[in-house]
Write the structure tokens for this entry.
Amino acid sequence: MPLSTAHVATERPERYVKQLLSHMGRKAAAEHTGSGRGTLTFRSGTCSLVSLQHELVLIAAAEDLESLYGVQDVITRHLLRFATQEELSVDWTDPESGDALEIVPPAIDDYLRAHCTPAGELLAELAETTREATGRAAGMQVAADEGALLEMLVRLSGARRAIEIGVFTGYSSLCIARALPADGYLLACDVSTEWTDIARPYWRRAGVEDRIDLRIGPALDTLRALPGEPAFDFAFVDADKGNYPGYYEEIVPRLAPGGLLVLDNVFLGGRVLDPAFQGADHQAMRRVNDALAHDERLDVVMLPVRDGVTLARKR
């Protein structure tokens, strides 16, 4: 549970960010990311520094409690040392685990759902069929508001050719395909027909089956077999997390300029924020999140939608 936050009331938050980054840069890797924000990376953990109006926010993270307390201690001591013209109070929250973070509180979730365009009877029926047929696995299906977001993004981008990695029972495929023009094309990749067999009747009823090319097999193999030129306008990735770096590397060169890559589950239930989680999926997601943020081919924004959604537009 090595995550902890301190909210420090001050009239000089940005000054303290600069001082901490400058002074601590001799003991840690210091990165100033602009807009009054920076990060200090120690051998034992990290601390993000955020300057807000009348407040400095400190976010400490480490792989274990002993390391977390070490990061808290060094940041607190240096911050208080810099505060020569005001008295600061640095009170850290109790340590918490990343998977305990509530990304979308229930009240906000309910309000969001109530203020989106309704999914419609066919998508609602598909969602219900998915719950009945797949049980606990139904959580792999995108929520109605995320489906609406995908549909809107396809329409706004004017996409004609799209890729989807991870079909499940076809909810997101349907949303993407019906937003394409009549002659549009969706390459839908999945490893099994176990759940995609549920999708086909709904695609047919929606009148979009002819736009969807379902390929069964490892998606990386399918992508690598495609021509290398930029021929796609839109891509949505919601599949096995350990292969996200590979999907990203294969898709970006095949996106046309202005094309949009959308990645789902980039928070992994909050676990990517918590260094205590070191599973293969967590490490892979951190790698792809970092790579996207520093990819000069892309303009990137990460959104707190559901379990985290990243939008990356090819320049």
Notes: The chain is about 35% helix and 25% strand. The radius of gyration is 22 Å. The mean pLDDT is 93.
